[in-house]
Structures are given as C-alpha cells and as structure tokens.
Amino acid sequence: MIYPNFTILGPPKTGSTSLFNYLSQHTEIYASPMKEPRFFLFDHDDPETRIKMQGLAKILRWEMVWNMAQYKGLFDGVKDEKAVGEGTVSYLAAPGTPQRLYDYNPDMKLIVVLRQPADRAYSHYAWRRTSAVEKAPTFSQALHEERTGLREDWYIAKYLPHGFYYKLLTDYLYVFPREQISIHLFEDFIDNPTETCRGLCTFLGVDPNFTPNVSKVWNISGSFSNRLLQRSWEKSLVLRDVLRPYMPRGLRHQLYTTLTSHMTKTPFLPREREELTDYYRDDILQLQQLLGRDLTHWLEPE
After folding, report:
1. What is the per-residue pLDDT across 236-286, written as a single tens digit (0 to 9) for each?
2. Per-residue b/e over 89-110, b at no fewer than 16 CB within 10 Å?
3. Residue 153: what pLDDT?
4. Rounded alpha-carbon distances, angstroms, from residue 46 to 23, 42, 156
5. Which DSSP symbol is given to 177?
6. How many other CB atoms are there within 10 angstroms of residue 253's CB atom?
7. Segments of 125-281 assigned E as strands
8. Which residues pair with 83 in a beta bridge?
9. Tens digits of per-residue pLDDT, 139-163?
10. 35 pLDDT higher than 80
11. Whose CB has fewer CB within 10 Å in the chain, the N or C terminal residue?
C-alpha cells in the first residue's frame, strides 16, 4: 500500500484545517502529523527547483519536508487505518503538482473545498495579516503589488491564482479520473460539517457512521485593533518561528486561539468585493457547468 492515499488539495482559507482535524478523529483515518508537508510542490529531481525550495525553507523551515524518506516517514505511525492522508492547501494551484501526485500514487483520492473566490482571496490576506507574514496594510495594496509584478518571487503569497477553480480543476482532471476527486462548496461545509465529513468517509472507503466533534474552528483570522499590539505581534514573527519546534502542537493551538480571540476582522469593502468577483466571473460560469451546480449566488453582492 502506498501512503498517503488521499490529500486535501485546498485552496487556502476554505476550512481545510478544520476539515482535516475533523476527519482525523475517525478511527479508520490516519492524518499526517504535519498537515502541510508541501512535498509535491516541487520536482525534486530538478536542480533548478532546489533554489526555490531553499527560498521557501527560509519561511517555512519547520513546515515542509525535503526528501522522499522524510515524506514517507510522516506515515510510519500507520497501523490498520484504511485512509491515510495529508492536506497541503497550495497543491491545487501549484504548476506540475497534479502529475507529481499521480506519479507517486495514481490511486490517490483528492479532496477540494471551493469558496466564493473573492471572499477566499480576502480571507487569505486577512489570515496572513493575522500571522504577521503579510506586510501590506490593506488588501487593495496587496493586490496592487501582485498585479504590478512587485510579488514575482514565487514563494511570496499571491492571492489571485488560487481562485481560478475551473482552470485548476481542469488541470487535475486531465491527470486524474473524475471519480477520484471529491469537490465540495465551502458554504455546504460550514452549514453542515458533519454531513460533509460523512460524505467524505464514504468517498475514502471508511465507515460513514461517524459524528466528529466540530466545536472547534481552526485558523481564525483578523488583526488587533490596538496598533501598538498589532505591531508587537508582527515583530514577534521571528521569535515565534524559533520557539515553534519546541512547543507541543496542542499548546501552540491553544495559545494561538487565545490570542486570536481578541482580534477583529476588517470588513471586505463591497466595492472591492464586487470588482474582484467580476475578475473571476468567466471562471465561475465555467465552473458551474463543470460541477453541474448553480453558482449564481457567488456573483451577487454580499
């Protein structure tokens, strides 16, 4: 058996971390201790990509794996679980990743959760502000930097490419059979996470009579209303990066949850949302044909 045999592809800010943790509660599912190993973002045999890997490692040095032995080691703890997976949310938009995943395991089952693309992009920005990785003080400035080429370094987060779902899914469907890709809408997952998990249990071939504890929500985003406190949080990024590997995962989550509970989210300006929705309009219309699902509500003002 080749492990993993499933992965959550993303995209970012569609509830994937919560979904991953809910599924991990199932006794027949083994979840990687590192949710996002990011291993298949690269062609590891290509010397040129090693430079890119080194660039990413400066930012995510504790959150990625570099070689096949290290990657397979994430699943050493598998016993008799039927479904074994990870959840690297940047896989969906990363060029070349569909073929790399297929070459590793052609039977891999893939999970995708899609969110209204403008809302997804804004939430992605807000989360990176929460993490103090994003320095642009406004979403419009971040998009301006992206559109004008000021963010050409591949490892700096770009918000726009992750939202062209039709194009990205077509790239995967060119490589994988349709029956190996389970596609869900974010709003359905938020409205009924238990039902979504049960449907995925059937997809993964494990017992669907499963009721996860869905009381926790992971990766809440926002910023401190106090500018001094927000600035201090941003300045602590390096210190947090140093301390991260020495802190148990549960303690990190508890501290992060406590801190972020005092944050507030800056509202997405209606004009910006409308403009960005229009940017994705053609892709949304193509996507609804692909899915056979009415997505006109994605095109309407919030």
Report:
1. 655 555 556 656 666 666 666 666 666 667 788 999 999 999 999 999 999
2. bbbbbbeebbbbbbeeeeebbb
3. 60
4. 34, 8, 21
5. -
6. 16
7. 181-185
8. 29
9. 999 999 999 887 766 545 689 999 9
10. yes
11. N
Residue with tokens 């494990």: 206
Angle formed at CA 41 by CA 241 and CA 282, multiple of 5 degrees: 110
Distance (Å) of CA 92 to CA 9, 158, 205, 220:
5, 13, 23, 21
Counted residue by residue, the chain has a size of: 302
CB 172 within 8 A of CB 288: no
Q: Which two tokens stand for residue 301?
A: 């003002």
Domains and CATH numbers, the chain: 6-223+265-299 (3.40.50.300)
Tell me if residue 254 falls in helix, strand or coil.
helix
Q: Determine how β-strand 83-86 pairs with β-strand 29-31.
A: parallel
- Per-residue pLDDT at 219: 63
Q: In this structure, are residues 201 and 26 in contact, taking their beta carbons and an 8 Å threshold?
A: yes
Residue 31, beta-bridge partner list: 85
